[in-house]
Design goal:
Chains A, B: One of its GO terms (molecular function) is ATP binding. Chain A is of the alpha+beta class and 587 residues long. Chain A has 18 helices and 24 strands. In chain A, helix 4 packs across helix 6, helix 10 packs across helix 13 and helix 15 packs antiparallel against helix 16.
Chain lengths: 587, 587
């Protein structure tokens, strides 16, 4: 029903008889002639109908926006002066000869060009119309290209695409599972996988050597702009390869992807230990496009008569850090108040600051509510350490290290964006040398990644002093977003039991939850490791999308009514009976 | 940890120092020397350890089957007379120099070579070991190659890979849905999709033009050898293309796949109307490798004094058909009795037969319990019509057409296999011109495919006399298996409502179930259609697998205990409370 896509017509087609099929994007009546902008996946072409072809002119006159038409016509140059250099097809137009209306359209709930004037709710409720917007089409096509590139790269490198089950048992990622009642095993439920983690490890034990899957994963969490309860993971696992090998092969994949699709060379990814990332950026996924860094000043303020600084400066779990904002002296009092509110979200009790007006005047040249508490000497020592210059502003965080890192880490990002401080477009890195464990809320230890991550020490060393032990995990970070994360896994059952022991998981519980993995480790598990990338995030980053709803075709939304195709439906009493389930009365 | 895969070593590597990693497939102690067969994904290599390298010899002596090792060694020619031409690596061996045991293995529950001696239950329970078998590895790798080929083909032809949701509303395929209780919408459930049918139609309405997805689908049905509750579909949909276009592009895909992966040219696929397939083969997915055909003889027996034949011969819904079995006169009475039992599964009340011993003697040369009822003339006329020759046997089916088709259709397959009558290795075809509707059990009509299939007539014609109207559906059949099926869809809301009317679906019900599709049809839906292939079946056919369990990594089985990783688990009372669900007491 077409010889060309609308968007593909160029000067070289002039003189050709062609057939197009698509949607009426716009219809104009101008000087006794009908102009139809006809749209398909590839773009828009202008078609002209003259009154001397009566039948098709009358039809063209009758069409409305979003009608579906098929037309035959002749490609010709646009009359001089009417070329449109902003349209890829702007040098030509089609003289319409025959027209068929394939389907009519009621007046759509919104015109594609007016999508910004209607609320997102309306657009989501009419998703099939919103998906017609060239911008969304472009993003979903880009997503398809990304997955295709990645599949080709992985296939060329010997990775096998192997499907793992969706209906499975609860997996150990720790988020809430979606449960699926089983009809044949009464009172039992399947769980939807939070990741194929255990299955891919079993595939390594089975000797498949290199596995990948672009896999749907599920977490029953509340929705956010960058999170959907079902999301897609580029899931990779290899055997007989250490962290260098795995990081190398996946770094090449992402570099190749950016080079091919965006013509961007990301260069070699720097590596940064977790501890350095926290120290310098207050984050384990630092955005290195942002030049600001957290600078420790605890030693300088430990002795001052200012409890707010001195107390955390002498607390082993405390931190006092400074964040220099280049040119920040221009920030208004109002903005500083806003930032103070902002850091309070992260638990900071205040936000001390010093403006550097004229360093040549010593402490006189500093403007600040706290210099009088710190003392002039200390204030100047701090200015020197952070390398402050006239016109800068220095923020302070003083609290438990966790609070300081989170508050100043977030403030750094926010100020960097507000003041346009970013120095480059792309800044990738690997964060490595993660701690194996972190403290949980009950004073126990919990796995920072997951309990199958290999520690960098022996089982005995691990059990003896688990705090501070590092793991063989690695995260790929791009522009402050964690693109992917992974680790070398435990392939030794002694080590696996040691980790369970530290985590306070009893033998019985381990057997119950992970028995099939422990069992597999007994029968010749090879050294193995892998990585999982969040595909949705990758596409968002590469397409510059602020919301995940722009990069998946049928998103879920907070309100069930919002997207009919995805709203959960009611089930009948008969269905519940068959599942042997009763709904409780709402209290 | 390796320079080569074990299975890749050949004569040209002789003289090279190499590193291998893999599993000890077998260990032999022979003439004071240790032989290890080392296995990885690519195959097996023989490694020899001499006693003069003491350390590695001692280690090699200590390894057992399924230990994971890394070794360095020298590739050399096998001593003359010890080459093994049945192994791809049989011309060489590796002289082991250094050996590291990467992981030990307990004695496995079964040895890979002995898998046939243990029950399938044991193998499924230890799936990670069963998956090590070269045969299963080969099949799963082949599956990966198939999907890769298909993705490349579709991408080259402009199809976009677009993901559709797994957590969605009930879809209209008619099988039982898996339900997922929603935590945020109390008392409501998601359904897992039986296919992405409605989503892909919405994508066409959105203008994506060509869509594909290798999609997980779910049906809560009981397990069978060729059926899993979650299965994988190669899902395709296009716009502005009629059935010729869609069949053409997908036929090319399957032909290309067979050519590239199996070096088989399937040739042009013949087309056969549904009615002809039922008439000649009693099946809508005829196996054309089998030369036998059903031949109607109702007109010959309508007048005989033998009710068993005469009644269905004169019943408009009846059928009397003959199935000639070449060389079947040799079938024993016992075998014929078995076939009689076999057809009774399909509702046949008996299985009449005539053996052709000596046609030159007329009816005298026929051996049969029924010739006396038919009369000699009629018997001979039938023999002539079916082209019977000496040594043949002719079976008869006489009943409702449905019973005759199913019984003789199945018998045809069975006898063809039993007597090795198949004439070729591959026999593809398209079955076309399906009826739009079939009778349901209550005397109403139900859609033969699904209610979005376009009829070949106008809405008015459809409503006036729906019985006997054809649809624009098509099935691709290979060797008696339905590989894929699809149709041109309804893109016109008037037609869609006409079909719902015939199916007895009220406006209200249509709105409730398919409102979002009906709504989309109002706003410029393009002509579109598509197809879905069963990937699991395709892989089974191409790898010659009898069970789906051989072509998926982690199958589910009837017994929950059978495959621990897939068994549904118990959930806690707290989880149920959160979902506001109560389990009923078992009655």
């Amino acid at each position: 029903m077409r010889s060309h896509y609308c968007g593909d017509l160029r000067k070289e087609h002039i003189g050709q008889d062609i057939t197009l099929s698509g949607w009426v994007h716009r219809r104009r009546d101008h000087g006794g002639v009908i102009f139809l902008d006809v749209r398909d996946r590839e773009g828009i072409t202008q078609v002209v109908f003259d009154p001397d072809r009566e039948a098709s002119f009358a039809l063209a006159d009758s069409v409305r926006n979003e009608y579906v038409i098929e037309l035959k016509g002749l490609v010709r140059a646009r009359p001089e002066g009417t070329e449109n250099s902003e349209m890829p097809t702007g040098a030509i137009e089609v003289l319409g000869k025959e027209l068929v209306i394939l389907n009519k359209s009621d007046t759509p709930p919104f015109q594609l060009d007016d999508h910004q004037q209607v609320g997102e709710d309306v657009r989501l409720r009419n998703r099939f119309i919103d998906l017609r917007r060239p911008e969304i089409q472009r993003k979903l096509r880009f997503r398809s290209k990304i997955t295709h590139y990645i599949r080709n790269y992985l296939e060329e490198n010997g990775f096998l695409d192997i499907e793992t089950p969706i209906l499975t048992r609860a997996t150990p990622e720790g988020a809430r599972d979606y449960l699926v009642p089983s009809r044949t095993h009464e009172g039992h439920f399947f769980a939807l996988p939070q990741s194929p983690q255990l299955f891919k490890q079993l595939l390594m034990v089975s000797g498949f050597d290199r596995y990948y899957q672009i896999a749907k994963c599920f977490r029953d969490e509340d929705l956010r702009a960058d999170r959907q309860p079902e999301f897609t993971q580029i899931d990779i696992e290899t055997s007989f390869m250490d962290e260098e090998g795995i990081m190398g092969i996946t770094e090449q994949m992402i570099r190749g992807l950016f080079l091919e699709q965006l013509n961007v060379d990301l260069g070699d990814f720097p590596r940064m230990p977790y501890s350095e990332a926290m120290q310098r950026y207050g984050s384990d996924k630092p955005d290195l496009r942002n030049p600001m860094e957290l600078v420790d000043v605890a030693d300088l303020v430990a002795g001052v008569d200012f409890k707010v600084f001195a107390a955390p400066a002498t607390d082993p779990k405390g931190r006092v850090a400074a964040l220099k904002v280049p040119g920040g002296a221009e920030l208004t009092r109002k903005l500083i108040d806003d930032y103070t509110k902002f850091v309070s979200i992260y638990g900071a009790k205040g936000l001390a600051w010093i403006k550097v007006n004229a360093l040549e005047n010593g402490a006189e040249g500093l403007q600040s509510p706290i210099v009088k508490f710190l003392g002039e000497d200390v204030a100047l020592q701090i200015m020197q350490r952070v390398g402050a210059q006239n016109g800068d502003l220095v923020f302070f965080g003083a609290d438990k290290a966790k609070v300081v890192n989170e508050a100043l880490g977030a403030l750094r990002i926010k100020v960097g964006e507000d003041l346009n401080l970013l120095t480059q477009e792309w800044a990738p890195l690997w964060v490595v040398d993660f701690p194996m464990f972190e403290e949980d809320n009950n004073g126990g230890l919990t796995a920072l990644h997951h309990p199958f991550t290999a520690p960098s020490c022996s089982p005995d060393e691990l059990i003896e002093a688990p705090e501070g032990k590092l793991s063989r995990a690695y995260d790929m970070v791009l522009n402050g977003t964690e693109l992917g994360g992974g680790s070398v896994r435990i392939h030794d059952q002694v080590m696996q039991r040691a980790v369970f022991k530290v985590l306070g998981i009893s033998d019985e519980e381990a057997e119950e939850k992970f028995g099939f993995l422990l069992n597999a480790l007994r029968y010749g598990a090879p050294p193995h490791g892998g990585l999982a990338f969040g595909l949705d995030r990758l596409v968002m980053l590469m397409t510059g999308s602020a919301s995940i709803r722009e990069v998946i075709a049928f998103p879920k939304t907070q309100s069930a009514a919002c997207l009919l195709t995805d709203a959960p439906g009611e089930v009948s009493a008969a269905q519940l009976r068959e599942l042997n389930i009763k709904l409780r009365k709402t209290p």
